[in-house]
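Box 4.2: Ligand-aware structure prediction
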Amino acid sequence: MAVLPLVILPDPLLKQVSKPVTTVTPEIRKLAADMLDTMYDAPGIGLAAVQVGVPLRVVTVDLGKTDEERQPIVFLNPEIVWESDERGVYEEGCLSIPEFYEEVERPATVRVRYTDLDGKSREIEADGLMATCIQHEIDHLNGVLFIDHISKLKRDRCVKKFIKQAKERERGL
Ligand code: NI
């Protein structure tokens, strides 16, 4: 159990396509547990392994609002097998792009196939916030960020701000 450091924009790792998990090893279980710790600590509702520097297709999600309501789900190799024509709009944020929020339109309902930590193949149908969250996280596995879904003008402005912040951090300002 550990809270891991988060990879922040414009780190090129965020553009990398993550590799599939082939076997559920103790290392994968530990990674998932550490990701949940990191996600709760942030706090956030979803996290992809690449955001803690591990480019593997592992995603954690928990939409529970309080410690008592926790409902963690660990998705290994998640893929969207069906999406609705109906679209939904949510204001999204990302732990790798702190304090930046924009509305993103995505399919309102999706069916996701994934492997669980017991190595069992599963499918869930997600709508509402869950649909947005899982699509956002699967995007991460493909090197795509939610700002890739907003206007170029807004995206350029956001990236510029984070490049400036990263330079300031390097200089210790
Ligand atoms: Ni994100």
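In the box above, the bound molecule is nickel (II) ion. The chain has a mean pLDDT of 96.
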